[in-house]
Amino acid sequence: MQRRILAEAPLCFYCPGYLPGTFFANFVSIIKHDIIMKYKRILLKLSGESAGGPDGTGLDAAVLTGYARQIKDVVDAGCQVAIVIGGGNIFRGLGSSGEGYDRVKGDQMGMLATVINSLALESFLSRAGCNVKVFTSIRMEPVGELYSRDRASAALDCGCVAILAGGTGNPFFTTDTAAALRAVELNCDVLLKGTRVDGVYTADPEKDRSAVKYDSLTFGEAIEKKLRVMDQTAFAMCSENGMPLIVFDMNREGNLRAVAEGNRCGTVITL
User: What angle do CA 30, 36, 42 make, to 5 degrees?
Assistant: First the structure.
């Protein structure tokens, strides 16, 4: 059995040191813990503001350490993880036009902000023991490899965490839309949006104490109720391609594992 597993182990050129022996060790770990993950491949969308900690600006080492620990946990359990992280903690392109910036240039600055966050997350994931690779939507080697669906998918197959930076590479599209697009492209089982709150509410629970949480929604209901979870382009992308979306509190330790295992956590949005 060991020979068969090693023979089938993917040869990965994305993650230095990721050899068949590592593949076999991970396989044994999964069998040992008898782990059955509901979702085998996930796209995790993280907000830049969350990475900035309580103030929502800059980069908070404690937050990134916690994120890396949770991601490492689900990867060790056999889940393939692709990540899109926003850049709102550094620069938000959408609001820049009102401050005198050209909208296109503002969005391009926002794309670069997501690259900064991606590199920071890569550093913390590497420190946590993950094999990780940054792909960028626009060419900027050696910062990251130019994104290709097939190459990113191959990296996921051989155990790498794939961080997809730079949004879609085009202005006027949010990182939520980029996350929906990449989730569909990479044939992910689910799109997970990690936030600072534990789901979707009737209003912002951080500002309105009377806000009520939804346990489940359809994409049509979310659009009709004008719930500001993701932009309508992202909703349409998920809806048209049957990509389920789960919104949950990423800042609560263990929540990512709970969601990946299929436990009720956060708000589930489906067709």
Answer: 95
3-class SS letters over 221-233: HHHHCCCCCCCHH
3-state secondary structure 43-73: EEEECHHHHCHHHCCCCCHHHHHHHHHHHHH
Q: What is the pLDDT of residues 160-217, one digit of tens each?
A: 999 999 999 999 999 999 999 999 999 999 999 999 899 999 998 888 989 999 999 9
Burial class of residue 66, CB neighbours in 10 A (0-12, 13-18, 19+)? middle
247/50 Cα distance (integer angstroms): 14
Domains along the chain with CATH numbers: 38-270 (3.40.1160.10)
Residue with tokens 């709150």: 197
How many Cβ atoms are within 10 Å of 19's Cβ, its own excluded? 15
Give the predicted TM-score (pTM) of the model. 0.88
Residues shown for the chain: 271
